Amino acid sequence: MFNFLARTNGNTKKISDYERYRWFFTSSGKLVIGGKNAEQNEEIMKSVENKDVVMHTSTPGSPFCIIKKPGKKDLEETAIFTACFSHEWKKGKRTAYIHVFKGDQVIKKKHMKTGTFGIMGSVDTKKAELKLALDIQKGKLRAVPFSAAKKKLVLITPGKLDKIEATSKIMKILKDKYHYPVSKEEVMMAIPSGNINVK
């Protein structure tokens, strides 16, 4: 179960509502969370423990994503998820480079802006393909790495549709092909922020 602890203003509290963040479960069942914005990145990174694995794109404009005790496939899927919810998706890139490091490498100095952190030591780099599949996880529609999706309802990649257009197309596919009733809000919460191709 989700057991990250947020440390803010000298107080520590358990973060139990992972659905407030970007999240998915890997194909082996490991929970991955990432920030939706700078404030959430800040909150998440204050929860990091020394051995947690953290990911961020090699360029600015990415969620910080955290996973505990991952295997090789978990790492690959987390890298894809990190890439797909970064600015690299908006730029229409097909691949992105992801930095992989441990929680004990993360530093925060007073002059750093909200949601920004420094990294000590060397990092591993993974190349990730920007491609997601819509699936149902824990009763919720999620956009997840292809290998983590059991049903693979709809495939999405970087493209030319804005978020509203993509949402309408996805809702039609889910209704016509799968008879799956889903709200506009649920789709919009699941997918990247725009520039989408729907298959």
Task: Report what the structure shows.
The protein folds into two domains: 125 residues, no CATH class; 67 residues, no CATH class. Helices cover 24% and strands 33% of the residues. The protein is built from five helices and 14 strands. About 3% of the residues have low confidence. It is α+β, with helices and mostly antiparallel strands. A hairpin with a 5-residue loop joins strand 3 and strand 4. It is globular, with a radius of gyration of 16 Å. The strands form four sheets. It has a six-stranded antiparallel β-sheet, with helices on both faces.
- The beta-strand count equals 14
Look at the helices and sheets and give the structural class. Answer: alpha+beta
Give the end-to-end Cα distance, rounded to a whole number of Å. 33 Å
> What is the string of helix and strand elements?
EEEEHEEHHEEEEEEEHHE
How many separate domains make up the residues? 2
Number of helices: 5
Described by the principal axes of the CA atoms, the overall outline is globular
The mean pLDDT is 91
Summarize the biggest pleated sheet.
6 strands, antiparallel
**Spans of 5+ residues with little confidence (pLDDT < 50)?**
5-10
Provide the β-strand percentage band. Answer: 25-35%
Cα-atom radius of gyration: 16 Å
What percent of the residues sit in helical stretches (DSSP H or I)? Answer: 10-25%
Give me the side-by-side strand order of the main sheet: 3-4-6-5-7-10
